[in-house]
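Entry:
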Amino acid sequence: MTIASIRDILIIFGIISSFIFLFTTTILILIIFIRVKKIIGYIEGSINEIDSLKNKIKETVPKPFASIINGALTLKKFTDSVSKRSKNKRKKAANKNSKKGKKSNDNE
Protein backbone atom coordinates (compact mmCIF):
# COMPACT_ATOMS: atom_id res chain seq x y z
CA MET A 1 0.00 0.00 0.00
CA THR A 2 1.37 3.32 -0.97
CA ILE A 3 0.67 6.64 0.64
CA ALA A 4 -1.55 7.67 -2.27
CA SER A 5 -3.83 4.64 -1.83
CA ILE A 6 -4.09 5.27 1.93
CA ARG A 7 -4.97 8.89 1.20
CA ASP A 8 -7.65 7.80 -1.26
CA ILE A 9 -9.14 5.37 1.28
CA LEU A 10 -9.24 8.12 3.93
CA ILE A 11 -10.91 10.52 1.50
CA ILE A 12 -13.56 7.94 0.57
CA PHE A 13 -14.12 7.12 4.25
CA GLY A 14 -14.48 10.84 5.04
CA ILE A 15 -17.01 11.38 2.26
CA ILE A 16 -19.08 8.37 3.32
CA SER A 17 -19.02 9.39 6.99
CA SER A 18 -20.04 12.97 6.13
CA PHE A 19 -23.03 11.69 4.13
CA ILE A 20 -24.05 9.45 7.01
CA PHE A 21 -23.75 12.39 9.41
CA LEU A 22 -25.81 14.61 7.10
CA PHE A 23 -28.49 11.93 6.74
CA THR A 24 -28.80 11.33 10.50
CA THR A 25 -28.96 15.05 11.31
CA THR A 26 -31.69 15.49 8.71
CA ILE A 27 -33.70 12.66 10.28
CA LEU A 28 -33.23 14.08 13.78
CA ILE A 29 -34.31 17.56 12.67
CA LEU A 30 -37.44 16.11 11.08
CA ILE A 31 -38.25 14.21 14.28
CA ILE A 32 -37.81 17.40 16.33
CA PHE A 33 -40.09 19.39 14.01
CA ILE A 34 -42.76 16.69 14.15
CA ARG A 35 -42.67 16.70 17.96
CA VAL A 36 -42.77 20.50 18.11
CA LYS A 37 -45.79 20.43 15.79
CA LYS A 38 -47.53 17.97 18.13
CA ILE A 39 -46.73 20.16 21.15
CA ILE A 40 -48.06 23.26 19.39
CA GLY A 41 -51.25 21.38 18.52
CA TYR A 42 -51.63 20.36 22.17
CA ILE A 43 -51.12 23.94 23.33
CA GLU A 44 -53.67 25.25 20.83
CA GLY A 45 -56.14 22.65 22.03
CA SER A 46 -55.52 23.70 25.63
CA ILE A 47 -56.09 27.34 24.75
CA ASN A 48 -59.36 26.44 23.04
CA GLU A 49 -60.43 24.46 26.11
CA ILE A 50 -59.62 27.43 28.36
CA ASP A 51 -61.65 29.75 26.13
CA SER A 52 -64.58 27.34 26.08
CA LEU A 53 -64.37 27.04 29.87
CA LYS A 54 -64.37 30.82 30.14
CA ASN A 55 -67.48 30.97 27.95
CA LYS A 56 -69.20 28.26 30.03
CA ILE A 57 -68.44 30.23 33.19
CA LYS A 58 -70.01 33.31 31.60
CA GLU A 59 -73.11 31.31 30.67
CA THR A 60 -73.63 29.47 33.96
CA VAL A 61 -72.53 32.01 36.56
CA PRO A 62 -74.71 35.05 37.20
CA LYS A 63 -73.68 38.20 35.31
CA PRO A 64 -71.94 40.13 38.16
CA PHE A 65 -69.87 37.12 39.21
CA ALA A 66 -69.00 36.29 35.61
CA SER A 67 -67.73 39.84 35.13
CA ILE A 68 -65.59 39.55 38.26
CA ILE A 69 -64.15 36.19 37.15
CA ASN A 70 -63.55 37.49 33.64
CA GLY A 71 -61.83 40.58 35.05
CA ALA A 72 -59.65 38.45 37.29
CA LEU A 73 -58.61 36.22 34.38
CA THR A 74 -57.84 39.27 32.22
CA LEU A 75 -55.89 40.91 35.05
CA LYS A 76 -53.86 37.73 35.57
CA LYS A 77 -53.01 37.53 31.86
CA PHE A 78 -52.01 41.21 31.89
CA THR A 79 -49.79 40.88 34.97
CA ASP A 80 -48.16 37.78 33.50
CA SER A 81 -47.35 39.61 30.28
CA VAL A 82 -46.03 42.65 32.15
CA SER A 83 -43.87 40.53 34.43
CA LYS A 84 -42.42 38.70 31.41
CA ARG A 85 -41.59 42.02 29.76
CA SER A 86 -39.97 43.42 32.89
CA LYS A 87 -37.89 40.27 33.34
CA ASN A 88 -36.69 40.51 29.75
CA LYS A 89 -35.80 44.19 30.23
CA ARG A 90 -33.86 43.37 33.40
CA LYS A 91 -31.95 40.61 31.63
CA LYS A 92 -31.08 42.92 28.73
CA ALA A 93 -29.94 45.65 31.11
CA ALA A 94 -27.82 43.16 33.05
CA ASN A 95 -26.24 41.90 29.83
CA LYS A 96 -25.45 45.47 28.73
CA ASN A 97 -23.97 46.31 32.13
CA SER A 98 -21.85 43.19 32.15
CA LYS A 99 -20.58 43.97 28.64
CA LYS A 100 -19.78 47.57 29.65
CA GLY A 101 -18.00 46.31 32.74
CA LYS A 102 -15.85 43.98 30.65
CA LYS A 103 -14.98 46.79 28.23
CA SER A 104 -14.03 49.18 31.03
CA ASN A 105 -11.88 46.51 32.67
CA ASP A 106 -10.09 45.92 29.36
CA ASN A 107 -9.38 49.64 28.93
CA GLU A 108 -7.82 49.98 32.39
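The chain has two domains: 1-60, 63-108.
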